[in-house]
Write a structure and sequence with these properties.
alpha/beta
């Protein structure tokens, strides 16, 4: 009994150790999330929130004394509000006599909630200083976006981009590995078919799938239970959709170039896509991340696809909002695509 138990236990342990994918998902995968989240939230609560301020008075003085905000003073209210609309600042505080108006970006729900609570508490504190007198200051809180917008407006761009990235990366990587393993690529190489034809056909399929994904996603989000409302410039999301698919397809081709099995390709794709989704602001803002990590984030295609989608789907910006994200996506596709082409193998 003890001999059989020992032999079985030894065999199972050796089998587990030899299964590299099991080792990865059991040990390294959780550690990867620990590293990502640990870095993202390491300085949470320590950094000051930057807000625009137009005017001066006891409310501003009390706000600065809290030590929780960094005041950026503006003389032009429109310029300050424009900063908030563009996502550069979470809020703008406008003082007109005894009226305090807070214009905040509802698209950044975490920062908006923090700023609203902080300013509201400061105004209450200043009013309490005038005990026995009518409240000295009146606070007006108003989002810079259309007040009718629902949270689905701010969730849609990031989740849609994330879904496109998963489909393109996994689709390209797993197809390439499977075809090489089954010697389909070898047969194609021997047939009168060029590599360009193979590549463009798979790319066309990826773009077609991305378009169907986006249409399905938006149609569901438009239903009454969710209440998505498309901005007037929603069609500008189409170039981002295509260029984003190209960038993620290039990543999938790179993964497929050096992985020999579907399991290895799936693991490698997960290593790239999941951390990228958290570092790109897909699920929550990353303003509290260290500066170097935010710099890394700006080099990721998903970050720029998210930002571009948010600008055209929620903020209603024009074609000028596509300049930076589209340029980054094109450059990323060119660099990674060239690397994938150099590493490409027709057969193992």
């Amino acid at each position: 009994m003890s001999t059989a138990f020992k032999s079985l236990s030894t065999a199972m342990l050796k089998g587990f150790i030899r299964d590299k994918m099991s080792l990865f998902f059991m040990f390294f995968f959780p550690l990867m999330f620990l590293v990502v989240f640990g870095l993202l939230f390491r300085d949470a609560g320590q950094d000051k929130i930057k807000i625009a301020v137009i005017g001066d008075g006891p409310v501003v003085a009390a706000l600065e004394k809290t030590g929780a905000v960094e005041v950026q003073r503006f003389d032009d209210e429109q310029a300050a509000v424009a900063k908030v609309k563009d996502g550069d600042l979470p809020a703008a505080l406008v003082l007109r006599g005894n009226t305090v108006q807070l214009r905040f970006a509802a698209s950044d729900q975490v920062a908006a909630g923090t700023v609203n609570g902080l300013v509201s508490g400061v105004v209450d504190q200043v009013n309490l200083g005038a005990t026995g007198q009518p409240p000295a200051f009146t606070l007006q809180q108003q989002p810079v976006e259309d007040a009718s917008l629902k949270p689905i407006q701010y969730l849609t761009p990031g989740i849609l981009s994330w879904g496109i990235s998963i489909s393109a990366v996994f689709g390209a990587a797993l197809t390439m590995v499977s075809w090489r393993k089954k010697q389909v690529l070898r047969r194609i190489r021997l047939a009168p078919v060029s590599a360009i034809t193979v590549l463009t056909s798979r790319l066309t399929v990826s773009v077609g799938i991305a378009v169907v994904q986006a249409i399905t996603f938006v149609l569901v989000a438009l239903t009454p239970p969710f209440g998505l409302k498309l901005a007037g410039s929603w069609y500008l999301a189409l170039p981002l959709l295509v260029l984003g698919t190209l960038a993620f397809f290039a990543i999938g081709m790179l993964v497929g170039a050096f992985c020999k099995t579907e399991e290895a390709a799936s693991g490698a794709a997960n290593i790239l896509v999941l951390p990228m989704s958290f570092l790109s602001g897909t699920f929550f803002p990353i303003e509290n991340a260290p500066g170097w990590l935010q710099a890394v984030s700006k080099a990721l295609p998903l970050r720029h696809m998210n930002d571009g989608m948010l600008d055209v789907l929620v903020r209603g910006k024009g074609i000028e909002a596509l300049l930076v994200p589209c340029s980054v996506l094109i450059a990323f596709t060119a660099v990674v695509g060239l690397l994938a082409a150099k590493l490409f193998r027709w057969e193992d």
